[in-house]
Amino acid sequence: MVPVKSFMVPAEKFVVVDRATSVRRVSEIMRDRRIGSVFVARDKEIIGILTETDFVRRLVAVGLDADQTPVE
Known about the structure:
Layout: E1 16-18, H1 23-33, E2 37-42, E3 45-51, H2 52-60
Parallel strand pairs: 1-2
Antiparallel strand pairs: 2-3
C-alpha cells in the first residue's frame, strides 16, 4: 500500500498570490510553473483557490478584462 503522503505536494511548493493580483499576471505564473491552480491570500491568510476553470467561467465567458480584474 502506498501512503497518501507520497502523493501530496510539500507546503513550500504551494503558489500563493495576493488577492489584488491581476488575472493576467496569475495566468502567466500558472503557465510558467505549469500548474492549474493557485491559492489566493489576504495578507497571509488563504481565502480561496483560483483554477483554470475559474478563468474560463468567470472571466472569459462574461467578457472581463484580465488586466483590470483582480483574482479576488
